[in-house]
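User: Fold both of these, please.

Assistant: Here is the first one.
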Amino acid sequence: FGGVTAEVLVDNQKSTVLIPSNQGKPQFNERFVDLAGRYGFTPRACRPYRARTKGKDERMVGYIKHNFFVRYRSFESWAHLNQLAEQWLREEADPRVHGTVKEVVIERFKREQPLLAALPQQRYDTSYLECRQVAWDCYIDVRGNRYSVPSRHVGELLDIRIGLDGSLRVYDPLNFDPNQPPLAIHTLRDAREGWVTVPEHHAALWQTTLKVEQRPLTVYEEVSRWNS
């Protein structure tokens, strides 16, 4: 939308609401509350079995399901899906007359858009957040495959963030700084493609491993070295 609405109304899915209002005061998911704080909107939950609010929330999903996804059934990538969705909005959804407000959607939006609050400068990180322990060989196990991290973190618990684009970012939770690059960046791969390794991650480990104690030379070896 290019801005933030004052309120965001959600259904009672577990990703946003842990305890619905029919069991007392609604309790929101911690990360959803964090999202609301970052963007500055007030979270609201539909009252269960109340068509006045729940119906509005579900109608939007039904409209997209029975119009957009009926026309477009396959996509080459997330980027392709978004491209088709934006085209569908411009050509079909936005120019239509809305059944409830009886106005053209795009014209109503242009009138309300100046009321939206500004977006924060930094986008909220929606990656899956998990933790992994680094094995002795500098690898972590993620979704059936192994990925290298710098050898200095062997034995430590590290945070991993998995994006919708298949990106894997590794962070040190004890020294986390969102403005600093992650310890490692990989792209998720199938285990059949083999482990994912960055040679620099193992450099210090190899130096330690290849250090071999030199035994004293024998008299014969000393003489041979001097003669040569």
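And the second sequence with its predicted structure:
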Amino acid sequence: MRTTRILRGPKLSPRRSVRGFTLIEVLLTLLIMSGIMLTMTSILTAARTSRDTIHNIQETQLAGPAILDRIERDLRALTVYDRTRQLQLRIKNKVNLGFDADSLDFVCTTRSLTLHEESDRFVRSSVNEVGYRLRIAPTGDFLELYRREEYGVDDDPFEGGNYLLLHERVRGFDIRCFEKDGPDEEPIDEWGAAKNDEHIGLPARIEITLTLELAPRLVNEQLRIVPTDKLIVVYKRVIRFPEGLRLAENDI
């Protein structure tokens, strides 16, 4: 008797259904991603604002006072030894781009900042010509403040030397002289500027007004730390010359 075998294929499992994301899940994902992006943007904005704040604080608290400290340090070291009264101090009243751009020149015992080559070695001088001048910046919008220094002293102590840039966004450098010290004294704009100037020697005091504009950290970025009218900062310094120094120059 013949037996017939029936071949059966493999068992087929029931088809699994493929299920996608629902609209609520997609919206929830987008909401979470938007929150993350908003948080990251806020963090970056806060970091950028903090950076700009530090930058402007450095300019406000370091640049202006540091420049005036440098000027005062030089003036405190002003020397009248072996100098005629005409060559002790010169202050010229100037205007550039509509801004005060006064100049200041004298001889002082401040050690020179720049090195001078002499006999195959670099040396510094203990007596130098020093001055402060302003020039128009290359952009033509501001003035640049320079410190002039001449190694040693020559026959013309108010000219020549090397120039060191102190600040590139100056909106004013005004110097006023007072022949006598007192609240009711009238200021004098120039001192020893001409050969026949009656105001020569040393005044009782001078008042220096330095106006700087804070430079934005990024050119095309709006700073949020201060209003626009506070981007311009004015610094003032009153410097009185010692009475002993003024009496000494009268004996020359």
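The chain is about 25% helix and 30% strand.
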